[in-house]
Amino acid sequence: MPGYEDITFNGLVAPAGTPRGILVRLNRAVAKAVRAPDLYNRFIDRGVELKASSSPEEFTEHIRGEFEKKARLAREAGIRAE
């Protein structure tokens, strides 16, 4: 549809109520992993750029934004759940 772009993203999520300290620890571990040159370059060779969110809150906002974009697209296209 004109005006929309679909970008695939992956991430780790945790149950609601998970202590922020644990979320920060997971975020830091993912950030460290995606900066590892061998892993990063392996993905770049396949046209995929690895990037970690700067914080758990940033990733939460990214997910929320993607949900809102998809909901708007569904409304504008008249797509309904069956």
Give a brief description:
56% of the residues lie in helices and 0% in strands.
Topology:
Blueprint: H1 20-35, H2 37-44, H3 56-77
Taking all Cα atoms into account, the compactness measure Rg is 16 Å
Mean pLDDT comes to 92
Order of helices and strands: HHH
Report the helical percentage: 55-70%
Which ranges are low-confidence, i.e. pLDDT below 50, for 5 or more consecutive residues?
none
Q: How does the helix and strand content classify structurally?
A: mainly alpha
What overall geometry do the principal axes of the alpha carbons give? flat
The oligomeric status of these chains comes to: single chain
Query: How far apart lie the N and C ends?
Result: 21 Å
For the sheet with most strands, the description reads: none
Architecture overview:
The chain has 82 residues and is an all-alpha fold. 56% of the residues lie in helices and 0% in strands. The protein is built from 3 helices and no strands. The longest helix is centred in the last third of the chain and has 22 residues, at 56-77. The protein is flat and about 45 Å long.
